[in-house]
Design a protein that fits this description.
This protein has 643 residues and is of the alpha+beta class. Helix content is 36%, strand content 21%.
């Protein structure tokens, strides 16, 4: 990489500032490979739908009742922040946290809006009439807080857009607008769209391109400011919905301004990326979510330098990720390499990295990104849920030998660590992971089908779902019937109001050794291409064949997989109840009843049978080789996954 690449990239923004006055050539954006279908076009089915329904009956649908003071704080309305506002008591323990008090002023906006985003999406996808009624009430209430000039946010007039220190201006807007966008896409409610346009215009007016410093936040911790870089999520989607290039131009401006200012979360800054000796070190959730602004900027700029920066960043992220997709997030990466036992991952980090790979998949069309998305969702994310109760782990490790608050029993000096447990809330730490756990399934579902031009549908993420869309002006419905990833057979039932020719492309996962189907097809860039005329009631049946695979991680430990799933040895445990938020909603901890540890042996005779992998491993405690049954990683609480 040339040393002057950063300067070359920075000059791109100069052309943006001149755009109204001159006709010089401006950056030519790259074309996106696929179109993201409007939210609600794909709905869950099968086991995913059942899980989402249980979540709405559980912590996702009841978080406002479990922490009412946080959810009902009128921070976007009558409770907007002003110069005399004090840091709020959020009910969390601050021992060992060095980020400062200023962040606690804006935290409730993140908690509320990320939860609302997930609640809105779950309600609409499940057609939950009671929840949809709550959503409509919320939409009306939040739109009523919008000022005449279009401002939607958490600050009074004396503070907004005037910051030189930590703040949540762009971050609070990001979390709010993502939910509003989902509601608009599903309902086409014009008043919501008009509110969004006015709100974004208000930002661009008050932080003008090349004549403002939205990321000038001093030299101290500025996590809220750094989170605000994901305002590019809103800009990117509005660009996709309208084709208006100014949204991408503004996203590029934000990323370059972030790159040229000091940030406590600097992993994704251009100068960090282009430094060959730099190692990722910052807060995991920031590092993984910032992949999206980098992707959007690379496509908006259309430059080779930005594309190279993106490639470097993606390669660095791989060193932080376990074979289950668990990206270091406990809480700082700290230059470490992912480890099955020693590095934990935060649920927020899982969501953010999954969503960033979804952005990459949609724009690049690289099906390897789809493999990464499925790996995170089906392994690390499912493995951070409690399979028996409505709660999730804030932090989790691949090898999880106890869940009593600390990482496998190791205390952290200077901190009362409580993150390694299951909770519907995690209020003692931060109410961030529970809201993101409510977002992850709807976001996964939305990216499961993509569109390529007018007449091609791409089944990119495999899962049980129902797609409804328009092909050649003909309404088309496709039911993807499967128990995937727990088995690898699929039936795609296609319903059309009349006979219609179009192309269906189905991703062939990287682990599939062969395809069993009666369809005529050809393979193209990791996709099974079926191009024919579909009748009013048609179907495609196929099965992916595979074998038990042994995978080696960066620390040379071995994992067993079959299909999309990692398998682990479950460790028996005693359940302990902690804080009770409401009947059926409590913190849960687990103490191991089995100290056994196992080692990999070459002659393991691994065999898949009836949903399990039966394998021979060496019991380190007994120094004996034993036959062991491994089960899907996502169905475990305590476990050993690497050997």
């Amino acid at each position: 990489m040339k040393k002057h690449s950063y300067l070359q990239i920075k000059t791109l923004i100069f052309w943006l500032s001149l755009a109204p006055f001159v006709t010089y050539a401006q950056p030519k954006p790259l074309s996106e490979k696929y179109q993201l279908l409007p939210f609600g076009s794909v709905k869950p089915a099968g086991w995913i739908k059942l899980q989402m329904q249980k979540d709405m009956e559980g912590f996702v649908g009841n978080l406002d009742k479990l922490v009412p003071d946080l959810i009902n704080d009128p921070i976007y309305g009558t409770g907007r922040l002003h110069k005399q506002s004090k840091a709020k008591d959020l009910g969390n323990l601050k021992s060992g946290d060095a980020e400062g008090e200023e962040q606690y002023k804006w935290w409730n906006s993140e908690t509320q809006s990320n939860w609302r985003d997930g609640y809105i999406r779950n309600a609409l996808l499940l057609n939950d009439n009671h929840a949809i009624g709550n959503v409509k009430t919320y939409i009306d209430r939040i739109l009523a807080t919008q000022d005449e000039d279009g401002y939607l946010g958490i600050y009074d007039k004396e503070l907004r857009y005037k910051f030189t220190t930590e703040n949540g201006e762009l971050w609070s807007k990001t979390t709010l607008c993502r939910g509003l966008l989902a509601y608009y896409e599903h309902t086409r409610d014009k008043k919501v769209w008009n509110a969004l346009v006015r709100a974004v215009d208000n930002v661009m007016l008050n932080y003008p391109v090349n004549h403002s410093q939205p990321f000038n936040a001093g030299k101290e911790f500025s996590g809220g400011v750094a989170h605000g870089l994901t305002f590019t999520d809103v800009l990117d989607r509005m660009h996709q919905l309208t084709g208006d290039k100014r949204y991408w131009d503004y996203a590029l401006f934000l990323y370059l301004n972030y790159s040229e200012n000091f940030s406590s979360e600097k992993d994704a800054q251009l100068k960090s990326i282009l430094d060959p000796d730099y190692k990722l070190q910052c807060h995991g959730a920031h590092t993984y979510e910032h992949m999206r602004p980098l992707i959007v900027s690379a496509y908006a700029a259309g430059s080779e330098e930005m594309q190279n920066a993106l490639k470097i960043y993606i390669e660095r992220l791989k060193n932080c990720t376990t074979l289950t997709g668990g990206a270091i997030g406990d809480e700082w990466i700290g230059g470490r390499t992912a480890d099955a036992t020693e590095t934990g991952y935060e649920y927020c980090s899982l969501f953010e990295l999954m969503d960033s790979y979804s952005c990459l998949l949609q724009k690049s069309g690289n099906m390897l990104a789809a493999d990464e998305i499925e790996n995170i969702f089906y392994n690390a994310a499912q493995g951070s849920r409690n399979p028996d109760h409505s709660c999730i782990a804030y932090l989790k490790t691949d090898n999880s030998y106890e869940m009593l608050g600390t990482k496998n029993g190791e205390p952290e000096p200077g901190r009362k660590q409580t993150r390694y447990k299951y909770s519907p809330v995690h209020q003692d730490v931060a109410v961030c992971c529970a809201p993101n756990a409510g977002r992850i399934s709807p976001y996964f579902i939305q990216s499961s089908w993509l569109k390529d031009g007018e007449n091609t549908l791409v089944a990119a993420l495999l899962c049980p779902n129902v797609l409804e869309t328009i092909i050649r002006n003909v309404p088309v419905k496709i039911e993807e019937i499967t128990d995937y990833p727990y088995q690898n057979k699929f039936i795609f039932r296609i319903f059309a109001r009349q006979t219609v020719p179009f192309q269906i492309r189905i991703r062939k996962p990287s682990w599939a050794r062969s395809i069993l189907t009666a369809e005529k097809y050809h393979l193209e860039n990791g996709l099974i291409v079926i191009d024919r005329t579909f009748t009013g009631n048609d179907s495609i049946e196929l099965e992916f064949l595979t074998d038990v695979m042994v995978k080696e991680d960066l620390k040379h430990e071995k994992y067993f997989s079959y299909g999309a799933l990692i398998y682990a040895r479950p460790v028996s445990a005693t359940e302990q109840t902690g804080r009770v938020y409401a009947p059926g909603f409590e913190d849960l901890m687990y103490k191991s009843n089995d100290p056994s540890r196992y080692e990999f042996v070459e002659d393991n005779k691994a065999k898949y049978q009836a949903g399990k992998i039966r394998v021979y491993l060496k019991n380190k405690n007994k120094q004996l080789t034993e036959q062991v049954d491994l089960i899907p990683f996502g169905k475990t609480i305590l476990r050993q996954a690497s050997f």
